[in-house]
């Protein structure tokens, strides 16, 4: 019996493992939403499609399984763009059904007509039309296979009238998910082992591509007495219970992480695609191992580039290298790492109850949150407090917009994570700027009964932008925000809310917030003048901040300069 394209598409999505579809219903997908209503897929109606794409990405990032978005015509499908780019860069397997006007009107500049392929093919692994009803299952299956295996977005474009077409659907197309192993050839492995043996001080720089190689990395570090530095995205996978871990490299990192790479004779960078060239050591020190040959040497010049998956390559390398007995290099950065951690705790202490530092909030959240909590942060300063002040336990999960760097990702991605893991504590760490950009989807939490916990770092400014301007020696402009009491706003939406302005009140409020039934929001007024201090203070940074101070005084803003000093340097 012939089936409609809409029912074939829905059935193929279910067989590919999808559980939810995020979107807003409308004319060109009405037949599709009707088919969804008759399936086991759950439709999540969002208030803005961008939030739907973020939520789908959050779900898929956490589960590794397929999630789906569906958009109507040009406007609806276009609204997904930013969230789709975020999901693709995060490696989240998301499939977007981007509908278009009827084929009879296509090519005539019909209202709402948009060339979806030109928009999405630049940032997807698969982007194709269903051009004939007989293609429906095949296209959806191949799109899902691309998203799941290549880890990113696939887009299927469907003209609205296509959904009601019929096909016998006789070919049984399947999604295949092979898991090959890969390592460098024998000669390359021999050359690599010789480099390791010749180096007195070896450090490992591991990224999210080494997420499955934690035990192999630890075995290598033990044998050659190497400290391990990790990228921010690899925190949850490589940091927990790892005695060789010395933290993070880069502007968001810590001193031990930066210096362990700077002062090594040899750095083994594995599964690591960290973008900022200035934080890499000189090229003669670097061996890069990556599963994707196009990644080799694209961030920094290197001495040797090898292709292999992290787990297989390190498992083969460990028996080939000679054991080292000198522990000085490792111990130096283990000690510095402990000092860095003590510094993070010190930053979170409060002497003045009327001044809440964001680190104080993050430290308390770290203590109060569940051992297997899922944390999702907005981009900007809330991301810094997450990465520096929340401990990875081996069960906790973390998600930030580290590659796309977009505002407003926090609570929508957390929404998808909570739908995927309804029995786990999921916490969105929101900036006031990020939250207000997609604030309408607070109503989605209520409508879809999603018991998400949101904490707002409320500082009335685009904090990271303000800090960037000041570090450049500029007087900050256009970063101030006029905000409501977010707890009252939440309550108006049907969400339980708390508002805190005194640090003595935070613990009681946080306990009640975490214990609340249903969605809940904790609005905390934090220090507006907080700086994100880099791992090492350079003379140019000090000079630039001093230049800001001079300009601000001349601009009649002396009090801000005093507050900046008092809140960051004199406490």
UniProtKB/TrEMBL annotation:
Keyword Secreted attributed: no
Domain Thiamine pyrophosphate enzyme central: 190-317
BP terms from Gene Ontology: carboxylic acid metabolic process
Residue ranges occupied by any Thiamine pyrophosphate enzyme TPP-binding domain in the UniProt entry: 378-524
CDD domains on file: TPP_POX, TPP_PYR_POX
Entry GO MF terms: catalytic activity; magnesium ion binding; thiamine pyrophosphate binding
Family matches, as Gene3D superfamilies: 3.40.50.970, TPP-binding domain
InterPro entries: DHS-like_NAD/FAD-binding_dom, POXB-like, THDP-binding, Thiamin_PyroP_enz_cen_dom, Thiamin_PyroP_enz_TPP-bd_dom, TPP-bd_CS, TPP_enzyme_TPP-bd, TPP_POXB-like
Keywords for this protein: Pyruvate, Thiamine pyrophosphate
Domain Thiamine pyrophosphate enzyme N-terminal TPP-binding: 4-119
Pfam families: TPP_enzyme_C, TPP_enzyme_M, TPP_enzyme_N
Family: Belongs to the TPP enzyme family.
UniProt name for this protein: Pyruvate dehydrogenase
Gene source species: Hyphomonas beringensis
Organism taxonomic ancestry: Bacteria, Pseudomonadati, Pseudomonadota, Alphaproteobacteria, Hyphomonadales
